[in-house]
Amino acid sequence: MSQCQSCGACCASFRVSFYWAETSDGGGTVPAELTEELDPWRRCMRGTWSDLPLCVALQGEVGTQVSCAIYPDRPSTCHDVREGDAQCLRARERWGLSVPQLISA
Ligand code: SF4
Ligand code: SF4
Predict the structure, then answer these.
(1) CA 21 to CA 89: how far, in whole Å?
(2) Is 78 helix (H, G, I), strand (E, B) or coil?
(3) Which domain of life is it from (predicted)?
(4) Which of the listed residues 1, 5, 83, 95 should we mutate to test ligand 1's pocket, taking the one with most ligand atoms within 8 A of CB?
């Protein structure tokens, strides 16, 4: 069973950057107003370009109950994180959360 809905650590641990054309003003899905320019080619989610990252689209409380306000429209970077992968484990460790129980196929 996914622990993501009671976690959210990866939305509050890293800079979430992606190719600029993923934003709505570039023809993509990510609402442009929730992003900021990182360089001429990349945007990032507001709130994540920080020493204490916290994505502006994250709702709820990390480690308790969370949801993504733009889940269907989130950037590719967010699609790429998988429960139990190296980034997930680093994020959970950062927040003092246990390692997810992985379901074996
Ligand atoms: S850190 Fe891992 S378990 Fe937590 S929300 Fe991200 S992918 Fe899911
Ligand atoms: S856009 Fe959604 S899934 Fe991606 S970091 Fe922000 S809250 Fe998390």
Answers:
(1) 29
(2) helix
(3) Bacteria
(4) 83
Closest residue by Cα to atom 8, ligand 1, is 4
Q: What is the pLDDT of residues 20-78, one digit of tens each?
A: 999 999 999 999 999 999 999 999 999 999 999 999 999 999 999 999 999 999 999 99
Q: Ligand 2: does its nearest atom lie under 6 Å from the Cβ of 74?
A: yes
- Best CA proximity match to 5, nearest among 83, 102, 85, 89: 83
> What is d(CA 11, CA 53) in angstroms, rounded to the nearest whole number?
8
pLDDT for residue 1: 59
* Integer Cα distance of 63 and 73 in angstroms: 23
